[in-house]
Design the sequence.
């Protein structure tokens, strides 16, 4: 990669009414790092160096660095975001706005102008103070805050265009300064303490390699492949895409229908034969005087019984109708079926992708402008819009859906759920009572018939043959046969209904089979990619680890004191970073050497990143011995060409010589990489609210 | 966020060294990688997007054969 490419740097920082910076704008201007890449910002402890570090973070992400928050809470001397002298002297109704702007350039010139501001308004006087997260400090009660952000970017014509869309701003900043990598471009020198021991640095090293190289992109890709595959799997399973099981059921049901139908035909034939014989017996019976009398009476009672039986059958059908057709319809069975059809059509018309979950329907319905989760637009008068509402109304009503599929105790629960429950309940009671009453009448009628038949069995013809007994026996056989035929007819009717339903379902599923095949293919592809990405990740991490090791060694060997004690640095596959002697054994490091090791890693790990973003280090050289400090400064200056390096240092770190070692300033400046040096100075200003009182403000002075 | 060129390069290198790896799959993987800057989308929306991307590749016999072999 050429040094000219992918160069991201901060051209200007402007601070107004933030931290210790009173009014403003207080401006820090930086040179293009391709020429001179180092800027020094010097200030004594407590002057506001870390404030610059924190404000850059806040401007980029609208949040405070967690570690800084802790510091602020612990150290009362630290200020909140807004300048305290301004904030604490607000009169009722007055407001103050603190702003930080970053002008960000790339190799082609200005890329973004990013501005974030926080306004505080003192609304009413209340006693006491309260911590306010937006200002990250305790403030007077009665103070209200609101934040704003704006970005200016170059449009296709090269002109500046503003946006306040938080997603656009977030995405654009994340593309050049990812928040999760902020440790590696906004580096706090105190983090170097972690490198004194392997145990405390391991996680940092691992995260650094994985984050700065953008491996989380692979992790996200893998996660989304798995999640999409699961969604599609649920979709396919929910639709019972396989037709093979259904086809087996259909074939079985079809065979059962045929078998039963054959049996009914056979029974009917037998019945006809028996009836013919019975007729002969009856003819012979009526020739006998008593026979004629009993037979007539018997026929009248049987006629009554047949009518009652017909009534019972009708009542049973009415009950069936009520229980299994009317009630489910009332519950919205048709609505659900319609919803499924609409859902299918929406998918067929590519209005919604199959991987969408049903809860996502809610998101579509609340989106503005109206659009599918994948971004496809719906028009306001689009018929699909109404269909989506129908789906939501029907399908998303889980309670009703559960009632329909539950089965057990269905009718009772339906009756307590449906709107017209009273009328249905009355109908049900009426039909049940009618069926019961007619059953009793049939029973009584059967008793009467039995009595008459007792008389019939005694009748013999003129030759002494017991034709009464034979006729009665045959009647009984015919009765049993007729009952069997009736029962089987009813069973066949139900079986045919079931078979036809299965057949219709099978036809629908067969039609959809191709579509399901596509979903299954997609699942196969996604699962294979998940495996592939997991495998490649291992290889990429291993390569990155090796690259980082080489880069870190480059800085370490140049900078560390008593370099002869060390042969090299190793980063193990478990990301343990250790210094080794010539024999390959672990060599212990002092506090200062540990800091050099850490700084070497921070600089080295950047080599595995594609983008040369700025590197802003707060207190980079503290705790590092004088000679090492100079070497480290030299190594940073020489080995990060094209990378903007902003060092926030104390006078002690930068300008003072220690012992025989020269000052860092005298080492760095002759190398020709230092473009500017700023000093943060204190300036006394007359307090406009309190005559005679002085405000200790800060300002930048270019040296 | 920006995709580190090492990732697509690694995929490409793998494809070059493995003749049974479908070359068109690299296009799909690149489409997936390009979504990494869509922080405005939640998981459901990302799933929907991946589903749409797959439409173009799902009938590719070479990709299907490779997928079946690698999804074990």
Sequence:
């Amino acid at each position: 990669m050429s040094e000219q490419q992918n160069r991201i740097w901060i051209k200007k920082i402007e601070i107004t009414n933030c931290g210790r910076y009173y009014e403003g704008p207080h401006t820090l201007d930086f040179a293009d790092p391709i020429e001179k890449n180092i800027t020094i910002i010097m200030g004594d402890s407590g002057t506001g160096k870390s404030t610059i570090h924190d404000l850059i973070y806040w401007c980029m992400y609208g949040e405070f660095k967690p570690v800084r928050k802790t510091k602020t809470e612990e150290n009362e001397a630290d200020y909140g975001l807004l300048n305290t002298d301004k904030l604490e002297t607000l009169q009722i109704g007055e407001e103050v706005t603190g702003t930080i702007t970053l002008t960000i350039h790339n190799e082609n010139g200005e890329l973004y102008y990013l501005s974030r501001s926080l306004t505080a308004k003192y609304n009413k006087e209340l006693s006491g103070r309260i911590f306010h997260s937006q200002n990250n400090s305790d403030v007077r009660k009665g103070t209200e805050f609101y934040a704003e952000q704006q970005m200016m970017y170059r449009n296709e014509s090269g002109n500046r265009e503003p946006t306040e869309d938080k997603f656009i701003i977030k995405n654009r900043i994340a593309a050049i300064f990812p928040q999760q990598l902020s440790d590696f471009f906004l580096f706090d020198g105190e983090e170097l303490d972690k490198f004194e021991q392997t145990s405390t640095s391991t996680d940092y090293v691992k995260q650094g390699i994985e984050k700065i190289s953008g491996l989380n992109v692979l992790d996200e890709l893998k996660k989304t492949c798995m999640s999409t595959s699961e969604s599609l799997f649920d979709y396919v399973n929910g639709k019972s895409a396989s037709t093979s099981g259904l086809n087996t059921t259909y074939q079985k049901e079809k065979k059962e229908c045929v078998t039963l139908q054959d049996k009914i035909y056979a029974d009917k034939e037998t019945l006809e034969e028996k009836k013919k014989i019975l007729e002969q017996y009856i003819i012979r019976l009526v020739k006998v005087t008593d026979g004629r009398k009993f037979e007539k009476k018997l026929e009248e009672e049987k006629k009554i019984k047949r009518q009652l039986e017909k009534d019972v059958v009708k009542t049973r059908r009415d009950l069936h109708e009520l229980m299994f057709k009317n009630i489910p319809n009332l519950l919205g069975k048709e609505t659900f079926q319609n919803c499924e059809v609409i859902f299918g059509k929406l998918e067929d018309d590519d209005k919604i992708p199959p991987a969408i979950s049903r809860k996502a329907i809610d998101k579509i319905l609340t989106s503005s402008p109206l659009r599918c989760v994948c971004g496809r637009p719906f028009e306001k008068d689009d018929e699909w819009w109404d269909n989506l509402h129908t789906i939501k109304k029907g399908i998303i009503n889980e309670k009703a859906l559960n009632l329909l599929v539950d089965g057990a105790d269905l009718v009772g629960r339906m009756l307590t759920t449906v709107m017209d429950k009273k009328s249905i309940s009355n109908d049900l009671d009426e039909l049940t009572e009618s069926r019961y009453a007619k059953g009793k009448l049939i029973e009584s009628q059967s008793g009467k018939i039995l009595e008459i038949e007792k008389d019939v069995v005694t009748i013999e013809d003129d030759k002494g043959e017991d034709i009464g007994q034979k006729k009665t026996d045959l009647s009984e056989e015919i009765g049993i046969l007729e009952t069997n035929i009736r029962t089987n007819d009813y069973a066949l009717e139900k079986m045919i209904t079931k078979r036809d339903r299965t057949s219709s379902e099978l036809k629908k599923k067969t039609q959809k089979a191709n579509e399901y095949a596509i979903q299954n293919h997609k699942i196969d592809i996604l699962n294979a990619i998940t495996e592939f990405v997991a495998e490649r990740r291992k290889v990429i991490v291993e390569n990155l680890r090796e690259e980082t090791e080489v880069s870190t060694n480059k800085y370490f060997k140049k900078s560390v004191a008593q370099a002869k004690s060390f042969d090299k640095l190793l980063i193990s596959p478990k990301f343990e970073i250790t210094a080794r002697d010539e024999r390959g054994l672990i060599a212990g490091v002092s506090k200062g050497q540990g800091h050099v090791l850490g700084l070497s890693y921070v600089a080295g790990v950047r080599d595995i990143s594609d983008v040369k973003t700025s590197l802003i280090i707060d207190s980079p050289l503290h705790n590092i011995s004088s000679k090492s400090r100079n070497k480290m400064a030299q190594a940073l200056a020489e080995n990060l060409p094209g990378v903007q390096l902003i060092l926030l240092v104390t006078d002690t770190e930068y300008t003072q010589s220690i012992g025989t070692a020269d000052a860092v300033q005298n080492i760095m400046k002759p190398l020709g990489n230092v473009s500017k040096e700023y000093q943060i100075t204190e300036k006394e200003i007359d307090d406009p609210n309190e005559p005679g009182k002085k405000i200790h403000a800060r300002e930048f002075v270019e040296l | 966020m920006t995709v580190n060129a090492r990732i697509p390069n690694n995929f490409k290198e793998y494809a070059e060294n493995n003749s049974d790896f479908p070359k068109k799959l690299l296009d799909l993987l690149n489409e997936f990688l390009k979504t990494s800057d869509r922080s405005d989308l939640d998981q459901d929306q990302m799933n929907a997007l991946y589903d749409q991307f797959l439409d173009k590749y799902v009938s590719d016999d070479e990709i299907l054969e490779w997928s079946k072999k690698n999804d074990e």
